[in-house]
Each structure stands twice: as structure tokens, then as C-alpha cells.
Amino acid sequence: MADDDHIEALLARLSRTQKLALVRGAADPEGTATGYLPGVEAAGIPPFRLVDGPLGIRAEGQRATAFPASIVTAATFDTDLARRQGAAMGREATALGQDALLAPGVNIIRVPQCGRNFEYLSEDPVHAGAVGAGLVDGIQSADVVATVKHFVANNQETHRTTVSAEVDERTLRELYLPPFRAAVDAGVGSVMTAYNRVNGTHMSDHERLVGDVLKGEWVFDGYVVSDWYGLESTVGAANAGMDVEMPGVAAPGAADAADSDTADDGEDFEWPDGIPDATHAGLFGDPLADAIDSGEVPAARLDDMVRRVLGQIDRFGRLDGDQTAVEDGESDDQAGELDSQRHRDIAADVAARGTVLLDNDGVLPLADGADVAVIGPNVDEPKLGGGGSSETTPVHSVTPVEGIESRAEGAVTTAFGIAQIESVSLFDLLPFVGEDDEADGAAEDTARREQSLDDAVDAAAAADVAVVFVRDATTEARDRESLKLPGRQDELVSAVAAANENTVVVVRSGGPVELPWREDVAAVLEQWYPGQADGDAAAAVLYGDRDPSGRLPVTFAPQSEYPTAGAERRYPGIDDEVYYDEGVFVGYRHFDDADTDPTYPFGHGHSYATFEYGDAETTGEQTVAVPVENVADRPGREVVQAYVRPPSVAGVDRPQRELAGFEAVQLDAGERRTVELALDDLAFSRYGPDAGWTVDTGAYTVEVGRSSRDIRTTASVDR
Ligand code: BGC
Predict the structure, then answer these.
(1) Were both Cys, which of 148, 177, 456, 650 would link to 415 (CB 3.0–4.6 Å)?
(2) Would you call 227 a catalytic residue per the annotation?
(3) Distance from the CA of 192 to the center of ligand 1, in angstroms?
(4) What confidence tens digit (pLDDT) does each residue in 430-439 have?
């Protein structure tokens, strides 16, 4: 923690110009950082670098471990593994000369087609909070500042820079705020505000949510940073509680791009939807000085901003004295670690553990000697992630074909079947980024690749097993148009399934997708965006070297069944307002309430092992214990989940059940263990605009099971 006297002494020595340099970003002379504070050399304050993003380190021009997408980490339901991934990302940030990581993203998955769901964690606040806190704790254990983002109600990419989330207080408190609160409770050093507005006010101007709730009620003592070009105003933002403007300077070429476009057609330049105005910068420069001079912003506010920034710089050992110590005797921790074997292993562990076995008629795990046809339009490419600020370039990666070829003992044939599914990226949407020569080359390669559905069908028919890899294509700044797989992938799967009854489909999607052929195939695995370990992780799960221990952090259902479907006002909004009319009934809370069976419920996922549950017992006000036995003849990993059903209270509409706790446990064949689950207060509490938080008196049923729709045993807790 920051040494207050030391910070105060430092602050007292700084001129106003020096203070201002600590609250507004500048260009990074080394060009690696996503955001840069120059520091104050004369006062011994070193430069401070902030870097993207949740899937690994995106330092410009550098390679780093491409970890699986955040939704994979969440699907492991394994907070310790999240912590280890966070620590690895922290060490990589340090190795690349960075001081703060712009991760994790903890926005609740509200809209199934949101383009950034892969960067987020869950449709459930207790789950998102626990996994997010694990990541925060891990990142900061490596002495790197974690930045929880995007505060708050940034749940869609369509109109993200202008839309107002019209959301009531109860829903904010019960659903959208808690993952941020969990990060604050875990000691997160920084919070990034969202681009959107909430109930009409831009998040960077939102005094009630930033000033009163985050800093006041939650006593957050780190710094609040804007999203990039997302600072709305000078006075409003400074007084609302914003501490740092990023990136603080216009993107190179942005002004020219805007000017030349205006000149072309005489119309005012309009930034593409989802892209912030990259010339909108410098609001915490001279305009902030002027606002202090005129008394619109108290001078004490600038001191507070600087104190918060210095507090984190100091907390993680970056003030001058500590830097010298690093040079004197560099230990591993201080030098960081990049692309090491242990980081590759963590990336592979998360990828395999987060893989969800949605269906299996017994074809999996594959026999070692099976002849396998590996089919799919992109089987020669790893699925690293989605597009945008989280794109990470690895040193090493494994494609599905490579992974299966190196594991299989039988013959392996491959076929693309249909045209390649092209990735989409935010960077291709930026008007000021030039044509990418490399990407053009890749497009030509695509055209040259031979594809024929007949070849795929022939390969499938000739093999013992056909494994079809399919994918969606998502990016920051764009939502998916639909939950259908792009291109002719559904057609490909159906044709292959008709040719081989042992067809296994491996889905790589950023969130829910529709799988219309699911009953015609023998098994379905959801691998999400597995990162650099892709093919190895797929093979490890397909052949049963690893148990598919992922569980769904988001409900899978036809697009029309989600609460945001069918009403434009709920999504994507009307006149830049999106109404959260469904209230707290998001995800499984909605499907339970509507009494609709989803395709695959929240928490769902099979294991290759079989688990039997004994009777759950409450062991305290906040804990429940349940014996779980692996009755299979192979080891497996179970995710034990506890949901709370509240007593009914007249006039109060509550979800039928809410996740209160979970625990991932590894059990050997025949092993039995009593698993203790801590129950989160949030699942017992409800928020009322007048009364605040209430825990109703009465009996709460604690449901313990394998998913939100597969309850094995119950216990009761009185409150
Ligand atoms: C994204 C943030 C990201 C920032 C810096 C923004 O477009 O919304 O998540 O950290 O850019 O790249």
C-alpha cells in the first residue's frame, strides 16, 4: 500500500505543470505502450506505461503469450487458475516494460451477439466477480496494476460511444455493478470508465457512479482512467472523479483522416459506429489548468488525481528508489518473464480446462488409433481471439491440424470444405490506419486455397471419425449480426454428419451460437477462442488426456429467446437509448422466469467422468458442504455449483435462483471428497431504491448441482 507521507511529500514538491503531466497521457517515446504517462524525472517519478489487454500483452511490435479469451478463463470456473493466468500476464507485462495492464473486462454478458463477449466473463455477477477478482489478484501479485473495465453497463458494441443504458438502480446494483465491486474488494489499482452513457450521463461525467458509488461507497483508492478518447468533458469529468485521461493525445493521422474525408464530400466527417473520435484528446491538459484557474475544478481535485496515480506507482514499487534496486540485483520477478514454458503451460491449461463438452453420445474421448478426418474452413489456423484492442501476437501457436496430427496414432486427413471464414478486426475499421499489406497477402492466399464440400464429405466418409472445426468472427466495435455461424459452416457440418455418424463438432465462438445440427452429430465441444494452445488443447480434450471441465458462463439458446430479442428499445436501442427493461432477468434468470428450456443452460458441461452427489448440508450461515464422488474409472474435474432460491415476499419479483458459489475439484477415479462452498451475500440480498440492500427473513433453499438446470441436492439456510 502507498506510503501516505512519502506521497504527500512528493506531491508538495510538484509544480502544477508537473502534476498535469501525471493525469493526461502522452505519446510513448518507445512506442510499445497503449497509454503512457511521462512521469516527472526531476522528482524521481518514472514514466508509466499502460498496455492492453485481457488476452495477453498487446505491446506494439512485440510478441507475447496469447492466452485464451477471458470467456474461456471464466468457463473453467477455477479462480485459482484465473489467478495463475493473471500472474503470468503480469510477468509478461513487466518483461515488456509495462506497468499497468488494461484487464480484466468484467461487463455482464447481456446481449448474446455483443462483439466483446469473448473479452468478458459471465452473465452472472457472482461468477464474473469471483473470476475477475482472481485475475486482478494474479496480475497485481506480479506487481503490475490491474485495470478493471468498462465501468459500467457497456454491454453492446453497437453505438457504444454514444448509447445510453437506461437501467434502474436495482438492476445496476444487483447485476452490473457487483463484478466491479468484487475487483475493488480484491484491491484493484485502476478502474476504466466505459464509452457509453448511463441514464443519460456519459460514464466519464458520472459523478454519482464514479464519485459517489465507486470512490465513496466502495472506498476505491486507486485511479480512474478514461477509455481511449472516451473522456467526455474537462470540468464534468474532473468533478465526477476521473483521474487520468487516455491516451491524452490524438491518434497519429486521425485529424488528417477526418479532414480529408470532410473535404471530399463537404459533409462533416462521421466516425464509424463504435469508433471513438480519435482527435478528441487533451481535455486534462490546458483546459484542466484553465478550469482550475477559473475555480470550476478545485485545485484539491488535481492533487487527489495525482495522489491516486502516485499511490499505485508507489504501491507496485516503481518510484525511483525501487527502480534502482531493480537494476542492482535483478530478480526474476522484477525482470518479468515472457513466453516461458510455464506461461505456455498455463495458456494450455486454461484452454483445455475451459473447453465445454456440450453433448457426447459416447464417441469421445477418441480412440488413440482412430483414423480422423479434420475438416473445416480454418483448420490450418489457430483461433487466437477476437478483433480489437485485445489482439495478441504469440511467439508460438498450434493449429487444429497440427494438434491432432501430433497426438493421433491413426491416419489423419484434412479438408477445408468451404471458403475460409475471415476474421474481423476493429483495426480494419479505423479510418486512420493504412492498408495492411500482410492482410492483403492473406486474402490472396485464401482465394488460392482449394475448397470443395465433396472433398470434405469424402474425407469424412473414409475416416472412423470426422472432427469439424467451426468458428464465428467477432470484434470489438461491432456486434455480430446473428448467432448463426458465418458462411456455409452449418451446411458443411450437416453434409459431414450425413457421411459419418461419428461426427464431432468443435465450436470456436466468442459467446453463444446457434447449433441447428446438434442432434445429428455425435458430440459437440465448445472451445471458445482458445489462444495459442488451440490445437494442442483440442487434441488433449478430444483424446481424453484432459477432462473437458469447462462449464457454460452464458446460456445458449436461439437468438429469439434472449430477453434482448424482439424489441428494438432493448437492443440495439432507439435514438441512442437502450432500455434494460428486462431488469435483473438476464441470462439464466430470464430463462428460469420465462420457464423456457434453453439449448444449453448456464453452468452446463459434461465430463468424461461421472459424479455422484451426496446430501448437501449447511455448515454455517454462509457455507454449504456436499460430498461428491467420481464413480467413473477415470479422473475428472467437476464444477460444483450452489444456487440460492429466496423465500417469496409479497410484491417482490425475484429470480428463481441465483448463483451463490462454486468450486472446481479434481477427483481421481473412485475418489470422494466433501466440497465446501462459500455462499455470496449477493445471492441472498435484494436492492430496493429506498431501503437499499435487504435480506428478507425466511428460509432460503440452497440448490447444489452440476448446472442451473441440473440440481442434485438441496439444503436450507435461515436468514
Ligand atoms: C477499448 C479498451 C482498450 C482501449 C485501449 C478501447 O477501444 O474499449 O478496452 O483498453 O481501447 O486500447
Answers:
(1) 456
(2) yes
(3) 9
(4) 888 765 544 4
> Residue of the nearest CA to atom 4 in ligand 1?
228
**Residue minimizing CA distance to atom 3 of ligand 1:** 389
Contact 422, 457 (CB under 8 A): no
CB 423 within 8 A of CB 474: no
Give the residue ranges of DSSP H helices in 422-488: 426-429, 437-448, 453-462
Query: Which grid coordinates belong to 301?
Result: 481535485
Cell output for 587: 441470462
Tell me the residue type at 594. Answer: A
The three-state secondary structure class of 623 is strand
Cβ(79) – ligand 1 distance below 6 Å: no
Which residue from 91, 80, 160 is spatially nearest to 119, judged by alpha carbons? 160
First-residue to last-residue Cα distance in the chain: 36
For residue 202 the three cell numbers come to 456519459
Query: What pLDDT score was predicted for residue 256?
Result: 87
206 CA distance to ligand 1 middle (Å): 19
Q: Is the pLDDT of residue 325 over 70?
A: no
What's 557's DSSP letter? -
Helix, strand, or coil here: 371? coil
Can you give the pLDDT at residue 427?
85
Condensed to tens digits (0 to 9), the pLDDT of residues 198-222 reads: 999 999 999 999 999 999 999 999 9
Q: Is 160 in the pocket of ligand 1 (CB under 6 A)?
A: no
Sequence-separated (6 or more) residues with CB below 8 Å from residue 318 = 46, 48, 99
Per-residue confidence (pLDDT) for residue 258, from 0 to 100: 83
* Distance from the alpha carbon of residue 160 to the mean position of ligand 1, in angstroms: 12
Q: Check residue 324 and give its pLDDT.
A: 37
- pLDDT level of residue 320 (50, 70, 90 thresholds): low
